[in-house]
Fold this protein.
Amino acid sequence: MSFVFRDAAGNTVGRSTNGGDIFVVVYSASSSLLARIVSPETETVLGNNSTQFKLKGYTSKTCNIDVYLDGSIYRSVTSKDSVHAEFQGIGVGNHQVIMKATSGSQTASDTLTIVVNPSVVNAAIPSGLEQGINYIDDSTVYLVLYAPFKNYVYLLGDFNDWKPNVNYFMNYDANKFLYWIKLTGLEPGKEVAYQYFVNGDTRVADPFSPKMLNEWDDSYIPASRYPGLKAYPKNKTNGWVTVMQPGATKYEWKTTDFKRPLKSQLVIYECLIRDFTAAQTFKSVMDTLPYLKRLGITALQLMPITEFEGNISWGYNPASHMALDKYYGTRDAFKELVDACHSMGIAVILDVVYNHAFSSAPICQLYWDAVNFRPTANSPYAYQTAKHPFNVGYDLNHSTTQTQYYTKRTLKYLLEEYNIDGFRFDLSKGITQNDYGTDVTAWGRYDAWRINRLDDYHKHIQSISPGAFTILEHFADVDEEKELGNRGMMMWGNAVYQATEAAMGFVNTSDFGWGVDYIKRGMPANSVIAYASSHDEERMGYKCKMFGNAFGGYNIKLEDTYLQRNALTYAFVQLVPGPKMIWQFDELGYDYSINWCKDGTISDACRLVEKPARWDYWTGISGRPDLYYQHAMFNQLKVQNESVYAPSAHYFTSNGSFKRLQLNGADFTTLVVGNFDVVNASKSPSFTQSGWWYDYLTGDSINVTDVNMSMNFSAGAYKIYTSKKVENTI
């Protein structure tokens, strides 16, 4: 082979070490003898007993060529540089074909494996088996694959060197479209990797994999993240492979008496592990639990942690809905995290992605149109074309019984295996059978089928783990969300824009009442999880820092000021009745843009780029620790007092510069008042009764003789008053 290297102008030319042209000798025909089977192009070919297998081989020079079939000479030629051979009717089984070239004392050879498939055995699957892995005992496993429209399936794995072998030709239950096989004699406790080899051209992991390996992603996972990670069977197969472990040691749960918080007590902390700790692991999140406990959260919601394509991701590009992503650590490490959360009274909620899957996912690869790079028309899992305008990846078809089974089976596994407390369904509005094309408005209208489908999944979750939370990122018309709420599900309630406008000091666009108050929405109590920050929105701190309002010497762009504006806003957001959510580090005024790039610039292209985990905010001397403590006080007041989390009535004046929240509880009344303007103001808190009122934040008290008395509120100031002394232990 000869190589030429030069720049575009032709001025710089690459040369060999001696200044000459670059030539690389691949082989010397005069001295080397090479033999190669060029057809078939693969090392293994499959067919039935009537298939005519044609071989074509070449050598690097004229020689004698022998073709062996299972150790015996099948065809020979002399003084040739090529050979042709045909095989037919050679019998069911694995056959070895060797092409051997001889020239004097030189020899060279190449090998082909011909697999003649047996007839597919139509055999009823043993009762009680599920799709995926079925452990019978510590050394016996049944594997079951749903694969209609497929002709045959081989099982490949560690046990047969990843080569098709008729001893691992799977049975088929034609009534249920299930391929199945029984494995015996497995070593107890030892991990075993496998794939399905479908129709002789598709290698695919088990759709119900508890653990998967990937040649490229796993090579970047150090032992510090995942000790003892099983090696990928490199050069033996490709694509995702499944790992099973019969006789595995079971995790012993330490916290067995955990009681989930009431919906009205939910204070959810949304967390992307990748950007939350420098180590980016389940174990490192455990180290933060005392911090989160003191903050007063009652639930930790993790962005998707099941296998996704690549290692560095938000997780909404799923390759599996069941296997955990190994970049975050081992399965037992995640169980330890859940266990530790429960020991501190914190529920664990998983963000799950059942709207779509990405191309490498087994449920896509099993029915894949490689030419058009999309699922096939007969896929029981995915549509060829998405049914709604916001889709990413490949839209899952929830009208099929198989996708419904797949969703329920994987939800059940996550609940039972990891002892979690609920799910947040990403893009739940996309779970529809109607074709909305690009019509966003029509997509959001009342859809009875969608309601019933989501309700069926919710009921399934309740049947497995009564009281588990079902949260929907839905954003449909209120009449649909109201019905879903009446059926026990909770909706994401986005108040980010108006709440951030309030924090920035723009009064005319600061009414976030509809976003955070279920009454203003006309929704059932505790059916809206309201938030002023989420993974999907520009950060409040960044917007205040860059675009905050100012008047005179008061400037919201200044750090101490926008931190206090954060506290002012969250005092109302958190204490309006109903479940609430906060995005990680917003309690410290995180002020990096969602579109921050590693070079310090801001670009939409950097939206998914890793962001700094600023734990130095917590240990610094700025006002950030004080902001954390204010958040902790809001949460403590809300979670520990029924008069706050479940008042008999509440009234929220959310418009204008002076906002007022009144909570009428059985034991005491709470008033939250605040000045959202950028100028000082004299306002009346409108106390509901005369007598002593208590400043919850400072512990001070005030004797109210005139319920309409006015008080001075500097710009950004707020107060939380209670009619009864409430202990503040923060």
